[in-house]
Structure formats: C-alpha cells, structure tokens
Amino acid sequence: MGKIYDGIHRLSFLISEDGKVEHVFDKFKTKNHHEVILEHLN
To answer: Distance of CA 30 to CAs 4, 9, 20, 25, 38, Å?
Structure first.
C-alpha cells in the first residue's frame, strides 16, 4: 500500500532541578530501561 512503518519510538528524559533536559535516553528496551537509567546516574 506504500505505507512505511518505523515501529514504536521510546524516549526518556533526565530533567535537572532547574528544569533543563540533561540527557535523552533513546536506545533501550522496556525490560532494561531501569538499568540504563541507573547506569547513567552512577
């Protein structure tokens, strides 16, 4: 039919206390999302 489907894009944002976006997480799966965030924070 000519339609291209790219799938679901998941994004998470790490926001600082002053409201600025400090990091954008875009390469993760739902199973390991918490591991990716904790790894970045450590």
So the answer is: 24, 11, 24, 12, 14
Residue linked to tokens 């409201």? 19
Question: Is 28 in contact with 36 (CB distance < 8 Å)?
Answer: yes
Determine if the pTM surpasses 0.70.
no
| Nearby residues of 30 by Cβ (< 8 Å), 6 or more positions away | 10
**Measured distance CA(35)–CA(32) in Å, rounded:** 5
The string of pLDDT tens digits covering residues 1-42 is 788 887 888 889 999 999 999 999 988 888 888 888 899 999
